[in-house]
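Lab notebook, page 48
Experiment: co-folding of the full assembly
Goal: obtain a model of how the components sit together before planning crosslinking
Operator: M.T.
Materials (sequences as entered):
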Amino acid sequence: MPEFRNEADKIYRCLFEKTVPDDVAERYSQVIERIERIYPDDVRDVRKCIEQCKDLEALEIYARHTGKLPLLSAKFKIMVFLAETLPENYGQYINERDRVFLAYILLGTSVIRTAFKFIRGAIAIRVLRQ
Amino acid sequence: MIHDVIIVGSGATGIASALGFSESGIVPLMLDVGKVPAKRSGIDGNFYDHRKKNDSFNLMIGPEYEGLYNILNNTSLPPKLTAPEMSFVTEDNAELSRTREEGFTAMQSFARGGLANAWGAGLYRCVSDELKDMPLSVEELAPYYEMLTQEVGISGDSDDLASFFGSVDGLLPPLNLSLKAERLYSKYHKKRDGLNKNGVYAGRPRLGVLSRNHGGRRAYMYQNNDMWLSDTPFLYTPAMTLQKLIDKQAVNYESGILVQRWSGDQGEITVYGRRLSDGIEVEYKCRNLVLAAGTINSSKIVLRSRSDFSTELPLIDNPLVQLPLLFPSFVGKKLETAAAGMTNLNVIFNFPEQRLQGSVIELTSPARSVFYEMFPLAARDNLRCMKFLSTSVLVLFLYFESNRENLSSVRLREDSVLTLKSKAYSFNRKLISRAAKAMRKMGALTSSRIARYSAPGYAIHYAGTLPMKEVPEGPYECDKYGRLNMEEGVYISDGSLFSYIPAKNISFTLMANSMRIANYISKRIRRS
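Observation: model returned without errors.
Model output:
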């Protein structure tokens, strides 16, 4: 299923800035049609977005907050769950040492980054619709 | 062959009933679907140590993608019920008991041991004012509470909550608190007088989790694996007692049978069921039938036996609100991988209007991904929040008592589909604000504005369909020993009997009541 491998890779890169591991891509491919059945109206648009959009994360945050393309957010969630099971991602999910100061800095910048992504997402969705 | 007693169901009340009969030397036949766990993930250590070294796909997601159940079905089951090894608890529910849910989320189980396989093991006695409208007293339940305390092994403490949770006799020491719970509890003690003056009391929960070895089972090891495994010896499930009773030949257990209805004729009851292996209809005969199939299923069996497709039976549940409690000094702290990932503390809000019970739950057991969608940020930022903020959060499950305003209903249709109807529960938001204020006094950052209101049925404390009355009048009422009105020898022995649920988990009271009913039936059998 090459198209799902490609899709898995794009979402995984968004989350972790790395190529998707084979195991995760395969598991993603096996389950993704099940989630597409829940949102049949979104399938074509979401596949097009994933294929064409350069900043998928921006598109997803905009879509999530405006109630659009729930399938896209569901695909992100599935990837988050699948990726957590790999030992190599352990540190991405579990905080293994006290980093209080860093945490506050990161959380502060996350809010600013999200606002920026939201605006980018709004622009991206308009471009895609044209 | 005519059995003295047939028990339907092997959940908490079915097993308590069997235990009650075994005290009198009566050997009942137990009919059950009896689903069992299909697979073993094989971890026997700390959940997090395991994950560092191993691909945990089979443990956390599962080959059938059970771990993604909520995403794939757009639902919000508690995380424990979506753990792959726990999938047997709800396996084949849709086929075995077809339901139409209109605003009410119904959880049923056809597993050996019932829904209790996935419970939080909160086992609280009721106190006198919590049995209102019931032809039942705490004194009548006391000996059964005591026997069950021995059987289960319950940890707890003699603290400020003793007057709300009843006798402390026979309790094992409480479990260790997580660091955040410890902080909360020490703040409570510092501000205790003021909080008590406002009706707020905190203390340790009563849990069916062993703090030390008990009855041949080993103590809890703080490894956070209990949410993921189906056979943890330290966390009591009724299936443990069932196995003991089978080994002692104190019960004849027949699994793979779905009981559908009964008919009675001059003191002889015929129970009709379907053998699931080949679909063949089977019959059993008995003099006493004890329905302990869980509120929803027992109601279905009763309605079907009477071919009643029009009556709407009342259904109650505890309305539930989840209130996140943030501890700013724990943001960015390392995750406490050896904490007890379950209820650490209870808080009673004894307000003049009504009493609420809060369970303060440590969140170290679920996958971190569960928290991903709770934050409103961009995907990668949500991952950061999940990692750094989830270490600083506890959640308060705030239970409300059942009330007439939040009444749901059950009706059986002619095509055997059970219709469960409810409108959205109404909550007294002022009480939630006051509870949040008290939690802030205990050092947690929270507000009623971030409360999550659970849908009807989410608490999974169903009751009230076949209420117990001093003098039963209607056909769907029972006498004080659970005997269904207008039936000879048919007893109800589960939550169906309780027309009111206080703001607490009443599983322990249901179990004690079930033993009490078994004791009564045993005496009648001996007399005859």
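Interpretation: Helices of chain A lie at 2-16, 22-38, 43-52, 56-66, 70-84, 90-93, 100-129.
Next step: discuss with group before ordering constructs.
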